[in-house]
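2024-03-11 09:14:02 DEBUG pipeline.ingest accepted 1 chain
2024-03-11 09:14:02 DEBUG pipeline.ingest length=357
2024-03-11 09:14:03 DEBUG pipeline.predict start
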Amino acid sequence: MDISRLAPLFQAEGPFASVTLDVSRASETAAQARNLRLRSATEELGRLGADREVIDQVAARLSERVDEPAPVARTVVATAADVQLDELVHQHIDQSIVGWGALPDITGWLELASRNIPFVLALVDHVGGDVAVYRSDVPQALEESSAGGETEFVHKVPSGGWSALRYQHVTENVWSRNAEAVADEVESRIREGNRLILLAGDPRSKGEVARRLETSPATVVELESGSRSEDSGGDALQHAIRQALLEHSVARQQELAHTLQDRLGRGEGAAAGVREVAGAFVRGQVDTLLLDPAAAAGTELRPSDHPGLPLGAVPVDQPVRADQALIAAAALTDAQVVISPQSVLGGAPVAALLRWT
């Protein structure tokens, strides 16, 4: 996950109040529960020592109505100066996360956000396709468009003879042009940074589009369910999408785990352990930070032991949570962040894939 856009957050002067909680408003009962969670969170901030003005800023922002389909978790980070971060994630959160300290506590938000895999869904047939961009498996597209649409000679005829063969050839050319138009639209979404493409609809049309995307940097998956003539939110299609997202996530985790273990085995291109990863950040080596949130949160890091560790405006004379410090370093050095279980990190709470050795 690219968190470089969060760099300004770590340049702000703390301390920071951080709250992540469920703000879903699916019903009046849910709204009442949200208000209770908010009151509990602000009371916890007070117990942790947060200033009244900061608490009021957090409470005011979290009180704002969110008209988004449930589930919705909201993360707000504030300082005495202003609200520094306000993010929504369409994921369920069991328990609110409240923090007050020298660094923002956004580990919980990262863990939730990492479950939302951006993808493009293309529903295709001989006439063209509907292309939509999603940021999660919530059935509400961020962007939608259609491609193709050439309909003349789109249907083949069963009659024989030379004229029928010529007609079928013309028809296949129409199908091909429509598939090309859909592939062009999908490629424009790939250029925007989307790296998972799900194709559903007519089998031949899916194959045509998939072949035209073979050289793209994205992963292309053909789904068994769904068509343009059906409701795109149908249960079978939604199940197929969720399954594809799960398989993509597992494959990505396995790929990273194998790469990490291979590099650690060769003794180059990787680091494992809080001190080792912090040292790699000092040298500007870290390409991808792999982090187990619970394990890393239980480990302290003393910035003074790592002169030059990029932490923004944080004082270097006090210990900080290792997860918060290394996430800050990742944001400030354009490193990717991946949530991974400790079991695949060589037993360490954190590990890193390096840009250079």
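2024-03-11 09:14:41 DEBUG pipeline.report The CA atoms of residues 116 and 257 lie 20 Å apart.
2024-03-11 09:14:41 DEBUG pipeline.predict end
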